[in-house]
Amino acid sequence: MKKIDPYSIRNDFPMFKNQVKMQGKPLVFLDNASTTFKPFVVGKAVNLYFESETANSHRGDYDLCYNVDVKVDETRASLAKFINAEKREIIFTSGTSMSINLIAYGYGTKFLTKDDEILITQAEHASNVLPWFKVGEMTGCQINYIPLNEDGKLVPENLRKVISKKTKIIAVAHVTNVLGFIVDIKEIAKIAHEFGAIVVCDGAQSVPHMPTDVKDLDVDFLSFSGHKMVGPTGIGILYGKYELLEKTSPFMTGGGMNAKFDMCGDITYLLPPSKFEAGTQNLEGIYGLKAAVDYLTNLGMENIRSYEEELRAYAIEKLKKNDKVILYNEKAESGIITFNIKGVFAQDEATYLNSQGIACRSGQHCAKVLLDYLGEVATVRASLYFYNTKEDVDAFVLALEKGGDFLDAYFA
Amino acid sequence: MPISLDPQMMRAIIMDHYENPRNKRTPTNKHYQMMHIDSPNCIDDINVFLLEENGIIVDCAFDGIACTISTASTDIMTELVIGKNVKDARYIINQYQKMIHEQPFDAIVLDEAIVFINTHRQAARIKCATIGWDALEELLDHKHEKG
Question: Which residue, among B14, B70, B73, B122, would best test binding to A if mutated, counting the most A CBs under 10 Å from its CB?
C-alpha cells in the first residue's frame, strides 16, 4: 500500500498551486462533501476537447468524431473498471440527482403500484428522497423509513424489522452526507434480494473516498457525481445491472438513443447504455471525468480511504480537547465531521470560519435527522479529502478554539 | 447614533438583540398581516408580522428559526418601524438596504441598525441581514393574509 503524501499531491491542484486565498487568508478547504478541487490533469483534459478534439460523438464520418467516440468509450471502460462493472452498465448523466431521477422515473414509476413500498431513511440527501416522493405521487406506492439506530446510522438488522414482500425498492446512501457513517450496503442488498426488492445506492459520498465493487456489494443501481471526485461539474454516472437497465425506460428521449422510428410512431430504442443517453452528451465533462478517474486510480482508493481515516482520527482527537465543541458523529468512519460550538448558531460559526479562510458548510442538512437524532436544527460540517493536511486540521482546530466571539467575522 | 460606534458596542448590540429579542413572537390577533420568508442558501426560516392601521405601523414582530445576524437585524427593524407611518418605514428600509450594499445612506434614521454596516465583509450573509427587511417591504407593498 502506498502512503498518500498530501504535500506533493497539492502540487497537482491549481487551487493550491495558485495559493488561492479567502478573506485574505490561506485557504483551508474542508467542504469536500460538497465539491472537490480539480487537478491540472482534469483541466488539461477538458481543454484538450476544447482546443484540439472538438466534435460531436455518434456516427461521425470524419476522424475528429471518431476520436471523440473512442474517448467516450475509453471513459466508460475506466469507470467500469473503477467500480468493477461491465462497460455497458455505465450510463453518463449530469450527476447523482439525475441518476436517481432516471431510476425513479424509468423504473419506479414503470413497475411500482399502489400495493408496493419504497424504503428510504431519514438520513438521505434530498436527491435520494424527493424523486421517490414523486414515484409515490405517480403510482400511489408507499414511502416508508427504515429506522436508524441511536447514533443515526442505518444498520441491516433494522432493515430486517421493516422489510416485507411489499418492499420493491430500497434507496439508501452508502455514506450519508450529514453523519458520514459507512453503511453495510452488502448486507442491505442481501436482505433486499431475499425479499425480491432492489437496492438503489446513492454513492455520491462513498465512491470518491473508498474502493467500490458493485459486484461484491451486489447493489442493483449506484449513482455518483464527477465533481465530488476531482472531476468536472455536470457529469456523473448511473451504474445499473444490465438486466435491470434493459427493463428500465429511458428518462429522456431524443437523438442518439433510438435505433429507428417512423411516422406511424413505431420506435426502436438502442440498447443500454445508449438508450439512456439522449442528446449530445457533456463531452468535455466526459474527458475531464476520465482524467479524474485515472488520477484517483493512480493514487489508489484504498490509500485514499486509509489516509482520510488517519486524518479524521487526528482531527477528532484534537477537537475532543475543546470543551466548546459538540461532536455529533465521533464514531463515523468517513471524513465527515459534524459539530456545533456551544451557544453559537451553526451558520454564525461557519461565517466565523470563513473569516479565518476556512471553508465549512453549515446547514439544516436534513431537518428530520437532525431533530430526531441530534436535537439540533442546524450543524456545521467539515469534510476531508486526500489533499487535506494535518496543518489544515490544525488551522481548523485553532480557529475553533479562538472562535469564542464569532462576530469577529464582521468587526475584527 | 454616531457612525463611529466602536466595534465592542456593535457586537454587544447584536448579541443583545439575538439573546433577548424584543419582538420575536407570533401575535394571536388575526388582524396582522403575515409573510413567510426563507432562503435556499441558509437556515433562516421566519414569519414577519405587521399590524398597520390608518397608515401607521402599530406593531411589527417576527418568529421562527434564525441565526444571530437575521434575528438581531430583524428585531432592530421591528423596533425602528413600530409607531412610524408607512412612508417613513419605507424610507428606513431603503436606507438600510443602501447601507448593506455599500451605497451612501442616511445614518440618522437607522439608529442601532448601523451595527450591520460591515455585513459586506461576509457577503454570504447579506441575505441574513436583510431577510426580515425584505419581508416587511413585501408586506408594505402588498396585502397578505395572516396564516
Answer: B122
